[in-house]
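Hey there, shall we discuss this one?
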Amino acid sequence: MNEPVLVLLTLNFAFIGILPRIFFRSDGSLNARWWATASPFFVACLFLVGAYFADWAALAPASWLRWLAVAAVPFSVASVALIWMTLGTHRIPISLWHQENDAPRSIVTYGAYRWIRHPFYASFIFALFAALLYHPHWVTGATFLYGVIALNLTAAREERRLAVSEFGAEYQEYMGRTGRFTPRLGAPVRVA
C-alpha cells in the first residue's frame, strides 16, 4: 500500500471527523441519525488503516493498485479543498445535520454554494470515493455506497425543510439552478 496516500486519506477523514467540533453549531446532540450518517467515514478510515497493518488484500489486480492510489489523490485533495472553500463561505457556524432545532437562519448561495447546494456532503463523497479507489474492497465499496445514500437522504430532508421555511421561494429558485452534489450543467449561475 502507498503510505503517503494512506496518510493523506487518513488526514482527510480526520478533518471530516473534527468538523462537528470546530465549525458546526453545538446546540444539539450527536443523535442516532447523525451517527448513522457519519458511520461510513469512521468505518472507511479504520478499514484503510487496518488493511495496511493486517495486509488485507484489495479486490483489484496488484498491478492496478499503484495507479488506483494515484487516482485517489485528486479526489482526496478535492475533498479537503472543497471543505476549506465551504468553511470560508460561512460567516457563522451552521447547524449540525439531523438536529431538531436546525432551522435555517439564512440561505447561502455564494462561494462553494454558488455551484452546488451541499458542498460539505460533496466533499465527504469525494473522500469515500478516494478510499474506494485507493483500496478497492467490498468494505470501501459498501461505505461509499452507504455514504452516498445516507448523504442523499440527509440532503433531501434538509431541502424539504428549507423549501417550506421562510426562505422557501428563494431556496426553490436556487435549487432550480444548482445541483445537489455536482454543478448543474447548462444552468445559469447567478453572480453574487
